[in-house]
Amino acid sequence: MIPFEYRTPRSLKEIHKELQEFGSDAKLVAGGTALIIMMKQRLVRPSCLISLRAVRGLDRIALKDGGVSIGSLATHREVESSALLQRRWPVLAETYRRVATIWIRNMATVGGGLAHADPNQDPPPTLIALGATIKVSSAGGARVIPVEEFFKDYYETVLKPDDVVSEIFVPALPANSGAAFLKFLPRTADDYATVSAAAVVTLDRSKKIFQDVRIALGSVGVTPIRAREAEALLRGQPVKSGVLREAAEKAKQAVDPIGDFRGSAAYKREMAGVFVRRALGQALAGISKKPRMSRRKAKRRRK
Ligand SMILES: Cc1cc2nc3c(=O)[nH]c(=O)nc-3n(C[C@H](O)[C@H](O)[C@H](O)COP(=O)(O)OP(=O)(O)OC[C@H]3O[C@@H](n4cnc5c(N)ncnc54)[C@H](O)[C@@H]3O)c2cc1C
After folding, report:
1. 111 lines ligand 1 (CB under 6 A)
2. Distances (CA, A) of 179 to 66, 130, 198, 299
3. Cβ of 99 less than 6 Å from ligand 1
4. Tens-digit pLDDT profile for residues 191-213
5. Which atom of ligand 1 is least distant from the CA of 28?
6. How many CA atoms are closer than 13 Å to the CA of 274, on its beta-carbon side?
7. What's the gap in Å between 34 CA and the centre of ligand 1?
8. pTM of the prediction?
9. Can you say how many angstroms the Cα of residue 296 is from the centroid of all Cα atoms in its chain?
């Protein structure tokens, strides 16, 4: 590795000052799990590393505006083991639990993962299916970007050199919703996905019709992919297994996988269909079949 300066600012304001001083020669470092490997391989050669770790509160996970705010410095392990997320957004806790090994999850951060933009990562499909947004802060102010608009190309995002990912916001799921994330791992349990699929399904009041559906996939293109045509096919349809199969076929048309040591492009496309169908099935199974009891009825029962 070549020598570099190391700065430890204590606030976002101080980070912005450091970024202005060093310009594009500087690199932010959060967990370091991706960046340090890239530096060792000399793929990046920053003259200064600006650590985010001394910024207090940047790892906070808390309810906000009816959803949940996750600080960019929260580690994968903190998301996985958050009691709040396990109770209210179990699909998020489950998704982060599926990342690599516990060693990596203890270090890797939510913001670092998103900024790294490896298309094989697990969290982006789930965040896209949940309709999450990313708050980005720079010296000029803050802006909010939907996760699905964040990734531009292979390891490339819409972030500018002086941008800092500060927070991820995940809205609450509407009533009668279920969510699932599935990771296809035929090699080892700590590998990147061969294919991953996330689905969020909302049924109407009768729980027989698809009211809304969001489907996203990972490891099947240069960025995470949202399967919009598959979603459109399901909206307004009665819940039947035939329609799930049709949606899975549509999802196969949306992906553009690259053949590699995890499988050929044709195999990954096939698996994309299989895992979308399974994710939809699992999301549906997570929706309570029981009709909601009115408050008055629940009170009478308790007496
Ligand atoms: C062996 C191994 C196995 C892995 N397996 C998986 C897997 O199965 N699934 C999976 O999803 N991921 C996997 N990962 C990837 C892992 O998720 C990433 O390495 C990790 O998410 C990066 O987070 P970090 O906090 O360590 O980022 P860092 O390494 O600190 O930074 C990564 C990049 O993001 C930038 N950055 C960091 N924080 C911010 C910020 N707040 N704002 C703007 N830019 C920022 C840095 O400048 C750098 O360019 C694996 C990694 C390793 C090393």
Report:
1. yes
2. 18, 8, 7, 30
3. yes
4. 999 999 999 999 999 999 999 99
5. 47
6. 10
7. 5
8. 0.95
9. 39
